[in-house]
Amino acid sequence: MKFLTPEQKKFYDDNGYVVINVLSEEEKDELSTEYDRLFESKREYELEASWQGDWNTKKEKMEVKSIHGLQMHSSVFTHLLLNKKMLDACEDLMETPNILLHHTKAHTKPPGTGSPFPMHQDYHYFPFEKDSMIAVFISLDAADPDNGGLCVYPGSHKLGPQEDISTAPGYHYLNQDKFSIDKATPLTLERGQVVIFSYLLVHGSYNNTSDRVRRMFLIQLMSADDVPSKQVHLSDCQGMVLRGRCSSREADIKSRHRKYMEQEEKANKM
Fold first, then answer.
1. How far apart are CA 201 and CA 134, in angstroms?
2. What fold characterizes domain 6-268?
């Protein structure tokens, strides 16, 4: 074990998640400041990302502001991807020294109107053959059920993929009666705490009824030894090696620009 205690590793294996502390106060301050600066600078863009579908029948205004690929906007988030303590913990949980980036994103729930997220598994968005995918959830604010905090079904990662009943293309969620948010376990987090969880863990989050904002930054990671079951959810910097190596990565000189050539060819036909 490089970072976690044996007790923490067992808790993760049993429950599908673990809460840890890896960030210094200086790092928390830097992330918070840069996070707010980024969202403020992108106000002219469409950032609304509330979950669609028939899972929520409430009619009042709900909103979630979101930006993906934060490492493409600021080096502060690039540096975070290489945080040694964080990667040590991920290596302990993933049981591999070879860790790749899948994608990053941030969700902000405004006070009073922050939308809940239905109970779901991340698996349905990007299934992998060996289910190596994990999420690193960084809570930039103190979070609890009142301001839209995270909730989980401990041990649900052992159930495997559950039925996706979404009625909205591009969105996935489970049966909200079978996995009721009222019966989920709420996670009360301190500012800057990190939750690492399996992409098979059933989880969601509450609506923000408080006068406090709830900001989060999420990193999805995969093993270099795993492969996607479907070519979906392709994102900026996907496959970037954050630790170790990726022996399966192609290196043929003739195909080095293949993706970009295909994009140019498609654009020229339009």
1. 9
2. Jelly Rolls (2.60.120)
